[in-house]
Amino acid sequence: MSDSDIVTMAKGWLRWATNSKDSEILMIVNSCLNQLYIAGIVENDIGKPIIQGIVRMYVLAMLGPMEGRELWMKAYEAYKIALALSSDYNGTNSVESEED
Fold this sequence. Notes:
The protein is an all-alpha fold. Helix content is 66%, strand content 0%. Helix 2 (22-38) crosses helix 3 (49-63).
């Protein structure tokens, strides 16, 4: 997925039409993907719907309406923990481990 596709998708979540914050949106999405990787979620392809869902939560927590940001951040943190514990996303469900 290209950077412009990612920004367009995030602006849809935010219901924004302006182009003035495109670089900030992309920076926030990349920050989220890096945080997921650091948390142990190595399967963090933005093309997967489950990863798009968690990135959406993070974007809304950072740039969404003020009254909902705290709730979105709590949802993001809970979802991040769940994905980090899932062998489908933390890299422990590899072919090597299945052969053992």
